[in-house]
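name: query_chain
kind: protein
chains: 1
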Amino acid sequence: MLPMELEKKLSFNRFISVGDLVIVYERHDVMKAVKVCENGVLQNRFGVFKHENWIGIPFGSKVFSNKGGFVYLLAPTPELWTLVLSHRTQILYIADISFVIMYLEIIPGCIVLESGTGSGSLTTSIARAVAPTGHVYTFDFHEQRASLAREDFEKTGLTSLVTVGVRDIQGEGFPDKFTGQVDAVFLDLPQPWLAIPSAGKMLKQDGVLCSFSPCIEQVQRSCEILKTHFTDIRTFEVLLRSYEVREERIESWENYGGGSSHKSRKRKQRSKDGIDGVEGSTTVLAKPCSEGRGHTGYLTFARLRCVIA
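structure:
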């Protein structure tokens, strides 16, 4: 998220300053987070980049090294932060995150409870969704992980929107002070069914809960508990398929289709630079990326059943 101006909560600093966190973009799969310092230097395969040349220019700028190589300096949005953050635990990625925010009906002003915090990937996106007047209270039982998450939220300018607590939600439940005050709850726990009764007490009437589980057995057991006080129980698996689009030179349509017939080889010998309109031509190809992620986990959503007095 872009660092916010305190006097204008809905506007953002668009120019890079000392102390800002920037995402240095080399290509779609090579990025890193860098804190800008007056005397700072970044060295990579493209050369040496001095931070002093970054100060005062807009996010999104293309900057050059001493060797003429270049990178882009991008703002640390939740989408990019998810791709560069330190993985202290398994994280949720963009496909699951966007689905969670939509189905939890998170909008500005919402109060959201989360357990566990982990690497803070989802927390960062929820914080932007509830800004500027909402808040995320996230809990992790591991004190060191919670401390590192706080540091990350400071780097990304989210301390006014996120509070990190150390608590075993499976064993202790959520703090009583949130009872009936919460719009949405997200659980990422090995035994979510232990925390569901407490989560139900925290939710407002018609509030929504989501539980993320990598195994279907966890889903089944959670759904049995959810039936007691929740309705509209649904489970989803979000599968994302990315495509790579690029322009390529096609020597012959027969070869492009996987064939290598004797006829096509003869045509290739007779042709010079695509005189016949086939060989040597270029076209735009779109094909699935080989590194596409498969199953991440199951998302189970449920709505707190309204009680009519």
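note: The chain has three domains: 4-76, 80-239+294-304, 241-258+276-288.
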